[in-house]
Structures are given as structure tokens and as C-alpha cells.
Structure of Alpha/beta hydrolase:
Amino acid sequence: MMNAVAIPLYEHNEYVRLEAYLLHSSNEFQVGRNRPAVIVCPGGGYLCTSDREAEPVALRFAAQGYQVFVLRYTTYFKEYVPDLAESPPGNPDSAFPQPLYDLAHALLMVRRNAVKWQVDPDRITIVGFSAGGHLAASLGVHWADDFLHERFNVDRELLRPDALILGYPLVDHSLAMKAEKDESFRKLVYQAHFGHSNPTPEERKARSPVHFVTARTPPTFVWHTADDDLVDARNAMKWALALAEHHVPYELHVFESGVHGLSLGDETSAAEEVHVNAGCSIWFELALTWLRRKDIFLR
């Protein structure tokens, strides 16, 4: 049995929330056993949080014994907008660091409710896709920074994820978007993320987590596709190289071919045929094997 419940992160704001998928503790098995947890950060260019990278991913992890939380963090729009030419007014509060505050708050909430939700507070992985990968990586490098410590006034270690899983992440804004031909889309994404549509090179660098990796950055499993048509695969490679330079454990997979936004790469998360990619869908099993080696698995 599984309980699914939406948990607002803030009073009077149901939009920013955790969608929890909590496994029931039956007396027939696993009595009193705390489970590892994952917090899923869907992508969406900070314009929305993709449903394709939310519940399908959550259910796959729940089937492996994880307590799962999907974070609907602050974005420019409250939901997916199929035609950006007719988009509603945007939310100026979507600019960084607000989404990072949301993720840090979510991690604290899971740790503070670890007993209630039967979570092992020392085995919490952040899973992020695309812009959600940028968000997860940002917490991975900034968790000990003063601005987060001052915001939450807690032991800095409580804000450190135990591991990261990044799918086709954006971690370096100098490599970020191949869709330069779609100038309006690029400007809208920058408006959502930076608060204006034309960030300077200095602003891009400041929002590129790859430049802030240290020896305390969490171990990371990262995957990408070599011909990603939106986010350059060198993002994943540069993240792995930065981890290697600081002796942080990592596993990197760059698959030869696949469109951006594959999610699970099978029918359960596909919006169209190109999202079904058997060559890439193995990322999930590879990630589980990696989590086992890191002992972030159901014991």
C-alpha cells in the first residue's frame, strides 16, 4: 500500500509543494525499517515542472522501496504552457535563488519528518532532470554557503544531499542551450531563471554550479545523450571532470543518441515516440546499481 499526498512547503502557497509517495509499513514485512528517500526535481526550463519527469519517476523509485518526494518548486508559470506565444504573465519570484530555497526547505522537511515518514535521514538522494538537474547540482555545491545558512539557521550538514542523480543537467550556462535559433524561448528561460532575458557572462558563471564543485559536493550519477538537441552533453562531462578534480566519486554515462527530455526513456513517461529509447532507458537500472554501491539502498 502507498499513500500519495501533497504537502505545501509554505503557508498560503499550495503551488510550491512536495508530492509524497510514501510506502505503507505492513506488519508482514520490514517492520520499523526506515527507507532511503529520493527527492525528484523535474525539469522544464524553470518555466514549469514537467509531469513527465515527476510521477512516472517517483513510481519507479517507489517500486524499488524508496520513499519518494516530487518537488514542485517555484517556476515562471504554474503549469505547462503548450504555446509559449500565448503564455500567461510570468512569476518574477521564479528567479534564483528562490527555487534553491525551495529545494533546501524540502530536504529539511524530509529530514525533520524522517521518523513520521519512515525515512533514513542519512540516505536522501536528489534526482534532477535538465533545469531540475541544475537545481539539484546547485544545492550540491551551495549547501554549506552562508546565504543558505542564514536563511534557514540550521546545522549546514542538514542541507547536504547524500547523493545526486542528474539526468541531462544544465550545469554550465556557457554551454547551456543549443536552441539559439529559437531566440524567444531562450530569452523566456533566462527571464525565468535570472530575472531578465540577457544575463552577462559574469551572471551566467555565478549561476553555473560546475564552477563551485568542492570535495564536499555529494557523489553523483550523471547521464546525458551525445546529440541532445537542447542542453550540450559537455555539461555532464564538465560536471564529472570537476568531481574528478576534487576526488568526489561519480559515474558518468553519455549515450550516443537521444532527444532532450527522455525522462525514463520508455512508454511510462513518453509524450511522443522519440521519448521511447531503449538504449537510454537503462540509465535507471544503472543508477540503482550505483546507489547500491554507495549503500543508499533498501537494506
Summary: DSSP finds ten helices and eight strands in the chain.
